[in-house]
Specification:
- With 239 residues, the protein is α+β, with helices and mostly antiparallel strands.
- Helix content is 46%, strand content 18%.
- It is built from 6 helices and 5 strands.
- The chain has a 5-stranded antiparallel β-sheet.
- Strand 2 and strand 3 form a beta hairpin.
- The C terminus is likely disordered.
- Pfam families: PCRF.
Length: 239
Amino acid sequence: MQHLISYNDIRLQKHLQFLSSLYLKAEKNEIEGVRGSGFSFEVLKYVRNLRNEIELTEGEIKELEVFVSDLKELKDDLYKAAVSEKESLENKLKEMKSEILQLIVPANIVDDKDIILELSAGVGGQEAMLFAKDMFDMYCHYASWKGWNCELLKFDKTDIGGVKNAHIAVSGQNAFKIFKFESGVHRVQRVPKTEKAGRIHTSTMTVAVLPQPTEIDIEFIQNDIEVKFNDLMEQEVNM
């Protein structure tokens, strides 16, 4: 998941401090401190513990950086072990920061929507259409692997197996959240099947990811309905 704010952002750190204070209030049964925060007591507790774990890990990494620097000239087994441990902790730190962002940064309100994928061949003639077909197959296979449902809405194919345009309805958990970053122009550089001289060509295709609209329940109240008709309509009714 991509975020427009980093873990070290000062605004986020202030917000984490605020959530930590809410947790301390909730721990003292001051439930009013939790209401309005948008988080349950369990989530506040988990965020606070995760933040503490992040701070501990950052401290361990700093200690290892000094240790590795001191052993840099030797580069013995101890040095290699320290480097390996440092890399492991850095990966762990990255995962924890990503997790805490996912917990407290609001998600897009359409992230859980089903989608319509629109694929169109771009620059490159027949090769662009073959590229669009490759992308079509990739998206369909990925959706199948995720256990999502796919419905083909449009498929304009070419004589050599390419695709001019294709529309696919994809239904599955977090479909828009996962696919939304695929929107835009995609490019490939390769030797096309149609190329006789073995030259590399550049071709493009475009992808549009649209959230599917959901059904809206509308309740009509009898008193709110007003029927109007003209004289001609009245004559027709009375006939």
